[in-house]
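Let us practice reading a record.
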Amino acid sequence: MLFRSVNNKSVGLNFWSGAMSTYTNTYPSFRRFVVDAKTMLPVQIETYRFDPNAENPEFLLDHELTSYYDMPDLSPSSFDGLASRFLNEEALALKYLRTKSQQGPKGYNNCDEKCRKMVYCDVSTSTYQDSRLC
């Protein structure tokens, strides 16, 4: 989720991650943040997930964020661009919805204009009230 300045410029990010849970509609997961040693800025975000039903259950790399969403980097402007892409790219919005729950719910088969707007609003702001007004 993006933090915006008073003039609506993307200036920061709020990273949500999965968790260990007893919910049956999501897979337990965690994220690994790789940071640049000099700047301490994130350069990679890897998501690992666990399938308890697998023959040999273990945490496996599910995806790396920039390559998964075809983003140039992890800057606020790149996330802003990703959010805007959700408005027009149904396959990308579906990818986000499925990944948001770590491949849990399988009920996302399409994402119409209203759905894509919801995804955009959820991602493009970090304030609940702002997302409702979106």
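A brief commentary: The chain has a mean pLDDT of 84.
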